[in-house]
Amino acid sequence: MNMPGEWYDSLAKPWFTPPNWVFGPAWTILYVLIGIAGARTFEQSRASPAMIAWIAQLVLNFAWSPAFFGLQLPALGLAIIIVLLLSILAFIGLSWRRDLVSSALFIPYGLWVGYATALNAAIVSMN
């Protein structure tokens, strides 16, 4: 399983690192929003650029934990999360005119992943 553990606990982390208990509730809410946006996009246009961006962000989202925690490679995690953030922003942009609700549902996700990107970058630079 790719969960924080002894290795993660041993890393130097920046002052803005949240407590571990924050991640579970935050990701639960975000995955609900991601799912709703994905379902709406799928119902409206299964082969749209927005749907492709949605699928890309999901693949990248799932790839981050094994890279960062499983392989214990924060730099690889950083590369993945940067592309993840770009795919989230692409989804927001591609959905904006077609489905403002789906686009808006991704804004908290984009903010969280932006924050996580800064956290990941700080961990890379500190270790």
UniProtKB/TrEMBL annotation:
The chain crosses the membrane at residues 20-39, 51-69, 75-94, 106-126. Its main location: membrane. Signal peptide: none annotated. It holds the Pfam family TspO_MBR. Belongs to the TspO/BZRP family. This is Tryptophan-rich sensory protein. InterPro entries: TspO/MBR-related_sf, TspO_MBR. It is a multi-pass membrane protein.
